[in-house]
Each structure stands twice: as structure tokens, then as C-alpha cells.
Design brief:
Oligomer: single chain
Mean pLDDT: 81
Structural class: mainly alpha
Number of helices: 13
Shape: flat
Helix content: over 70%
Radius of gyration: 24 Å
């Protein structure tokens, strides 16, 4: 019953948050100079016709009210520039399926390697493996995505020729996956290491050892389970971010995913695409954070959901 009330409360808060995001984004978007048809090779008369056709000549609050009404009915409008006349909902669905397929694999790589390397580093504190892992993870966190993508392309595709540059060829997803997984893997490694070090000297672990339990059970059943709370906290926004794709990875490797629309829609002033990807991304973050909050209770039953 308590969990049900908590979920209802979070859903209502999520709805309020999404409403605020939609409102702020819409009015900030309209502060940008120009309009979606500035780059059109058309006369001023034809441009004015297009503006009137889509109702962009009306007051902002009127446009905003119409957009909210359509959004409540599941209509995100049609793209003005990027894919003229095509429903934004269809564009997002199609491109998200590509990004999700890539993102799930990158997420699994990040979680598995991040937790394993973090455990190894934490259990070998101040030893050689710990030092190597800390240096590598620090480098991975500090390297921008475009540096990782460019380095992989130069080394693996150009110099060694072991992987194709194009995403559409066999093996073409390997470098985008590594690019997407690099930062979260290194961050999860450092997060897991810090959590392991924090719980390893807790009294309850000494008790488990005194009961004769093996070190493997103590570490990977009891210590690891209780050290995953900070990791789960990070997994919410990480999952949303990585599933919607990365602009750098998708641009460098020509991946037809959702990530490229985050920037291209702004640069082209495609208002409906800007709102569509913002609403979708925000909703995904809210849902992932709600899932993570519920997972807290599963990982540690002592946590009370208020």
C-alpha cells in the first residue's frame, strides 16, 4: 500500500515536471530569432504563406495552447524542416528503435564492465590492479566523446582496417557501442569502487565472516548488494541518455538514430522536432528515475518509500 501511494505520488510529480519542461522549452524556443522557413529558397510571399499555414503568425500563447491540446491527444505535429510533412511521432519512433538497439548493448557493456572493474579495484585497494584501473577510468571520464570516436575510427578502421567505418556494414555497430559505453563504464567503475570501499569494513560483514561464510559470498552477495545503491541512482539518467543515442557517436559513425535530432532540430529551427525530442527525452528520464526509486526497495528492503 505504501509503495502504491509512493508510485502515484511520483507519477503526479512527473506529470507536473513534464508540464513545466514543455512550457519552458516552448517559450524559450520561440525566443530564438527567425523561423523554420528562413533557409527556404522561396520568396517572402511564399514564406509568409508557410508561416500562416502552420499558425506561426499567431500569438505565442495561442500557439502554445494549440500545441498542448494536440499533445494531450498524442499528436506532436509534423516536421517543418528535417523531414517535411512527416509526423514527428513517427520520426521519433523510427529513429529511437535504432538508438535503443545500440544503446541497450552499450548499457550492458557499461554495467557489466563498470561493476566488475569497480569490484576488482575496490578489493585490491592501493595495489597494481587498482592503480591501473583508476588511471584508465580517469582517462575515460576526461576524454570527450568525439575524441573517443575519432581515435577508434583512426586506429581500428583506418590504420588496422579491422572494422568498417559505416554503421550499416557488418561489425559497424562495434565502434559506436564502445564510444557510447566508454564514459559510463569508467564512471560506474569509480562509483562501484568507492561504494565497495565504504561497505567492506562494516560490522555486518565482519559478522558474516565470523559465521564462516566464504569471502566470495561476503563480497559478491552481501557487500556488492549494499554498495549498488549509488550505482542504481546513476543508472536512471544514464539509461535515458544512452537509449536516446549520442549525437557525437551517431554523427561520426552515420547512425540513423534519435541522437542526431537533438542538435539538428535546433540548428534548423524545426519547432515541432525540438518539442518532440524534448518531451520524449524528458518522459524517458522521469520514467527511468521512477524505476530506479522502486529498485531501491528491492535491493535494500530497509529503505522506506515516502
Amino acid at each position: 500500500m505504501q509503495t502504491s501511494r509512493y508510485i502515484i505520488k511520483r507519477v503526479l510529480l512527473a506529470a507536473v515536471s513534464l508540464f513545466a519542461i514543455v512550457t519552458i522549452t516552448y517559450f524559450l524556443m520561440n525566443l530564438m530569432p527567425g523561423d523554420p522557413f528562413m533557409s527556404e529558397k522561396a520568396s517572402e510571399e511564399n514564406r509568409a504563406i508557410l508561416i500562416a499555414k502552420y499558425g506561426l503568425d499567431q500569438p505565442v500563447y495561442v500557439q502554445y495552447g494549440r500545441y498542448l491540446k494536440n499533445l494531450f491527444h498524442g499528436d506532436m505535429g509534423t516536421s517543418y524542416v528535417l523531414q517535411k510533412g512527416r509526423a514527428v511521432k513517427d520520426i521519433i519512433t523510427e529513429s529511437f528503435m535504432v538508438s535503443m538497439g545500440l544503446g541497450i548493448r552499450a548499457l550492458l557493456v557499461a554495467i557489466v564492465f563498470g561493476i566488475i572493474l569497480g569490484c576488482v579495484a575496490g578489493l585490491s585497494k592501493d595495489k597494481l590492479p587498482d592503480g591501473i584501473i583508476r588511471v584508465v577510468s580517469s582517462l575515460g571520464i576526461s576524454m570527450p566523446g568525439y575524441v573517443v570516436a575519432s581515435t577508434l575510427m583512426i586506429v581500428l578502421a583506418v590504420n588496422l582496417g579491422v572494422l568498417p567505418v559505416s554503421y550499416n556494414k557488418p561489425g559497424g555497430s562495434i565502434m559506436p557501442i564502445i564510444t557510447l559505453a566508454m564514459y559510463p563504464t569508467c564512471y560506474l567503475t569509480r562509483l562501484t569502487r568507492a561504494s565497495i570501499l565504504e561497505v567492506m569494513n562494516q560490522d555486518y560483514l565482519r559478522t558474516e565472516r565470523a559465521k564462516g561464510m566464504s569471502e566470495f559470498v561476503v563480497v559478491f552477495v552481501h557487500a556488492l548488494k549494499n554498495s549498488l545503491i549509488p550505482v542504481i541512482t546513476y543508472l536512471g539518467p544514464l539509461t535515458a541518455s544512452i537509449l536516446t543515442g549520442g549525437f557525437v557517436a551517431e554523427s561520426v559513425f552515420n547512425v540513423p538514430g534519435l541522437g542526431r535530432y537533438f542538435v539538428s532540430s535546433i540548428s534548423s529551427r524545426d519547432y515541432t522536432m525540438i518539442m518532440g525530442v524534448t518531451v520524449f527525452y524528458s518522459a524517458l528520464i522521469v520514467i527511468m528515475n521512477l524505476v530506479c526509486d522502486i529498485l531501491y526497495k528491492i535491493v535494500d528492503p530497509r529503505i522506506k518509500l515516502d
